[in-house]
Amino acid sequence: MQIYKMFIDGKWEDAVNGETFETRNPFSGEVWAQIPKGGRDDAERAILSAHKAFTSGPWPKLTASDRGHLLRRLGDLIAENAEHLANTEVRDNGKLINEMLFQLKYIPQWYYYFGGLADKIEGAVIPIDKPDTFNFTRNEPLGVCVGITPWNSPLLLLAYKLAPALAAGNTFVAKPSEFTSASTLEFAKLVEKAGFPTGVFNVVTGFGADVGETLTSHKYVSKIAFTGSEGTGRKIGELAARNFKKVTLELGGKSPHIVFADAEIDNAVNGVISGIFAATGQTCIAGSRLLVERKIHDQFLEKVVALAKTARMGDPMSTATQVGPVTTPPQLEKILGYIDIAKNEGAECLLGGGRPSNPELSNGWFVEPTIFSGVRSEMRIAQEEVFGPVLAVIPFDSDEEAIHIANDTNYGLAAGFWTQDMRRILEVSSAIQAGTVWVNTYRTISYMSPLGGYKHSGIGRENGMASIQNYMQTKSVMISTAESVANPFIMR
Asked: Residue 66 falls within a domain, yes or no?
């Protein structure tokens, strides 16, 4: 069994209380690693370490170019260790090795991009309306930033937060999900090897009630970046608001995936399958609501079901596997519960609807790819995030109805649609209430393009040039060039 320690203040340590917890392989159900069960004292130590590193020592004395060099070095180390990190994540969260390898080989780009951006953050000289005053602005780091990551893509979603935070000159405390802590601890070894000063990056493992609350409420923490559920995001927002901390929250989604009658049908079918069954549906941007124009509804749905039936479930470490297990037992029960809810609400189950019968999969946390037709927009299966391989299909008759259904949820993280009509592309992409809209593609991401949600799907944006501003604050400096001060009782 792999025994891990936390990374705090440049040292590898057990939890203060000496407690640990187990992590299991979602495919086999077997315990494979032991993780420190950190508590409030460990979170406090990590925050104090990051605060010290931000206020003294070598980190604040580094030039922006120096920070960029360290980030690019970290990117190189991730690239060199991509296969090892990918294997660790598969053992921890059960996602496909093909997807994890793609992610880990792509993640270095975040550190290259923001490493290159570090010394290009500029202030401005303002031609102020005071003739005897010189005014300029400068962008400064916030201080200690906390990143809380979920279990579906730990290192990718950490990169969204860590790369811009360090580029801007902040220090960082990472808190991975208790279900998938191993890859972040493996990643910390690379941060140490890259040569970042002590305390700049820390990892605390444990549970939200102790570690999470301390990290989000501590006086030395200036910013919290979180990816996860709406409910947890709301709690973090409330705790942060008490001390006016900045937050970036990337929360849930119930993304509409719309197919118009003029779409390239085979491409759209592939896109729909990828949108919901890739990653076993365990992604906030999953296209979990399929909206199909009625005139092609039956034909299109037949093709989707036929392709979904061919999905190969199995060991996520096999490159032949197309659908892996669900990451956690609680999530497995949640998905099965929503399947029952959909059946009770009157939706017709065309495919799947339970756990697979294959005895080779009996030890793992598997759910069959599931498709429901006859879904109405007001049903819970169309309104609430399932976070699993479950597709709800809704017909529509016009562009206006498609837009109405697409926007008829509390969420607005992502959306996608398929059409060959350029007028429709412009009008529908404008009308849909979502932070990302894909046209004739789905699940495309880039370190250069902002990602974030409308409505209950979150606050702020990650990735791209805009994201680094979320880790900075602007200072205005005014210098008087006047030879004497006029009436001191009058504002100038």
From this structure: yes
Dist. CA 158–CA 160, nearest whole Å: 5
- CA-to-CA distance for 207 and 307, rounded, in angstroms? 40
The whole-number mean pLDDT for each consecutive block of 10 residues of the chain, a chain of 492 residues, reads 96 97 95 97 98 96 98 98 97 95 97 97 94 95 98 96 98 97 98 98 94 93 97 94 95 97 98 95 96 98 98 96 95 97 98 96 96 98 97 98 98 98 98 98 96 96 94 97 83 73
In 10 A of CB 274, how many CB atoms?
Answer: 16
pTM over 0.85: yes
pLDDT given for residue 320 in this prediction: 96
Query: For residue 39, how far is the Cα from the chain centroid?
Result: 24
Residue 13 is part of which domain span? Answer: 2-251+457-477
Choose among 278, 275, 307, 218: nearest CA to 418: 275
Tokens 């303002």 map to which residue? 126
Catalytic status, residue 238: no
Catalytic residue among 99, 178, 250, 368: 250
Give the model's pLDDT for residue 208.
87
Number of domains forming the structure of the chain: 2
| Angstrom distance (rounded) from CA 1 to CA 171 | 32
Integer CA distances (angstroms), 264 to 347, 394, 421, in order: 27, 19, 11
Within this chain, do residues 423 and 308 fall inside the same structural domain, yes or no? Answer: yes
CATH number of the domain enclosing 290? 3.40.309.10
Contact, 386 vs 335, CB < 8 A? yes
Which residue in 159, 431, 391 sits closest to 286, CA to CA? 391
What DSSP letter does each residue of 436-483 carry, written as one string?
EEEES--S---TTS-B--EETTEES-BSHHHHHHTTEEEEEEEEE--S
Q: Give rounded-to-5 percent helix, strand, coil for the chain.
A: 40, 20, 35
Neighbouring C-beta atoms of residue 18, cutoff 10 Å: 8
188 and 281 in a single domain? The answer is no
> For residue 218, what pLDDT is reported?
95
CATH number at residue 137: 3.40.605.10
> Which whole-number Å values give the CA distances from 158 to 107, 108, 155, 176, 264, in the listed order?
10, 12, 5, 9, 36
Q: Indicate whether 82 and 202 sit together in one domain.
A: yes
Residues 229 and 346 in one domain: no
**Residue 401: inside a domain:** yes
Whether residues 238 and 287 share a domain: the answer is no
